Please model this.
Amino acid sequence: MKHITPILLVLAIAACVAWLSFPPSDHANAQSYGPNVTSNLKRFNVVASSSGDNELVEAVSGKRFRIISLALIAQSSTSVDAYLINGDNELLGTAAAPQPIDMSAVDGLAGVVLPANEGGWLETDTANEALEINLSGAQAVLCVGTYVEVD
Model:
């Protein structure tokens, strides 16, 4: 019975990832994502696998990013500590308190899912900086999400 729980968790996370990949069509209007939005909804889909900083969204001149949805899914049963950053700003987790994740959900969560939130879950603090995930080791983590650019 204890092997069923991780399987159900992985299936639930997979369903969330599928939903993130195909958000409802009424979300296409950039104005519904709060003030200062300068783009339509954009997506990223990256498998981060290097120890240290891994780029999820490339820096855009004069723009910050508002994260509308996010899923971080472990691709290895070896635990890895992860946190989101832009420049020197820690956005989700910190270097001192990162989120441990592993596919088997033994030493941490199998993943983190923030479903679509029109107001955004988090926002980078500085323009001209990439959105990155920092990993404590060279373990693969699937990173998918949606965002808008803001002034």
Observations:
- The chain has one helix and ten strands.
- The CA atoms of residues 24 and 116 lie 10 Å apart.
